[in-house]
Amino acid sequence: MTAELTARVRDAVAGVTDPELRRPLGELDMLRDIAVRDGVAEVGIALTIVGCPAADRIERDVRDAAASVAGVDAVDVRVGVMSPDERKELTEKLRGGRAKREMPFGPDSLTRVIAVTSGKGGVGKSTITANLAVALAARGLRVGLIDADVHGFSIPGLLGLVDTDGLPPAPTRLDDLILPPVAYGVKVISIGMFLRRPGEDAAGAVAWRGPMLHRTVQQFLTDVFFGDLDVLLLDMPPGTGDVAISVGQLLPHADVLVVTTPQAAAAEVAVRSGLVARQTGQRPIGVIENMAAMTLPDGTVLDLFGAGGGDEVARALSDDESSVPLLASVPLSPALRSGGDDGRPVVLSQPDDPAAQAIDAAAAALAIRPRGLAGKPLRLNV
């Protein structure tokens, strides 16, 4: 009976998910000695590193899982840390048995990569990207988000990934792997997570040129462990500069989503970002018009930035081979703005808001295209 009870406790604890790696502890070889004596379950686990930020949650979840087994009256959780050799084995397992680092989002990947671009800054591209990511995750997709706007990073704040000082948390490192923090079901990485300086109340600024920018994007794509994703979004910097060129070189198969405002001047510049992406082999798949006309409480319509910019960009990017649709026209919205300031995406905090509904409609349009196996080699680890 004791052996059977111990086995049931082990099975229960093995199913607990590591909140950073998003895999069961049993699969990650994080379980140690487990025994049940006189109704007390003694459970040993090994965390990946000393000071693991998810330690409290893992211990709590393990305790709850063991206590849920009938016949267990109390739980004693003993927490240790993996040895260097164990961590090495784990990192190789996470890489699919490959010891060498490589970029997992190449042309053979089943992950759909979408670069969200704009011709100029100030059109709300990052706000749209953050809400799109959350809306896609809410639909059950596995979503990653890279804040590729290195000079003007804002994704951590938009998703509430900040501490009491208002600064992004540093991600956990597992040897040479970086584990991205998770917000609203989205795995997120940003340069802002690496710029914290002791004693300062603001993240440092970045003053880098082409080679450093290229290396940063490359490391985000290679060293960050996103796991198996359905969609990887990149929040691109405005314009067609160094990062856009680097992403075009590293991810020439990526889809491109263009964000503009209704204003003619913004639309004209937005078209250029889509055209440059096409020159690198990327494919524009849609346009989102932000800051469109809003309906005031008295029923009047305020088109502060004019009208028609989104349609114009979609027409300009369409050609004989493919039509680029206007996926959404997102109206001006105080809720969208305040949600960004508070780190609470409007698609979740106020789903009935017109802006939230428009963004969710765009997410629905993007989500209906499944990952396909046609023409892609299947990697088998024998």
How would you describe what is shown here?
This protein is 34% helix and 20% strand. The protein has 382 residues and is an alpha/beta fold. The strands form four sheets. It has an eight-stranded mixed sheet with strand order 8-9-5-10-4-11-12-15, with helices on both faces. A three-stranded mixed sheet has the order 1-2-3, covered by helices on one side. A hairpin with a 2-residue loop joins β6 and β7 (177-179). α4 (125-138) packs across α12. It starts with a helix and ends in a 15-residue tail after the last helix.
List the helices and strands and how they pair.
Blueprint: H1 2-14, E1 31-37, E2 40-47, H2 55-67, E3 74-81, H3 84-94, E4 112-117, H4 125-138, E5 143-147, H5 155-158, E6 172-174, E7 177-179, E8 182-183, E9 186-190, H6 210-223, E10 231-235, H7 242-250, E11 255-260, H8 264-279, E12 283-292, E13 294-295, E14 301-302, H9 309-317, E15 326-331, H10 334-342, H11 346-349, H12 354-367
Parallel strand pairs: 2-3, 4-10, 4-11, 5-9, 5-10, 11-12, 12-15
Antiparallel strand pairs: 1-2, 6-7, 8-9, 13-14
Helix pairs in contact: 1-2, 4-12, 6-7, 8-9
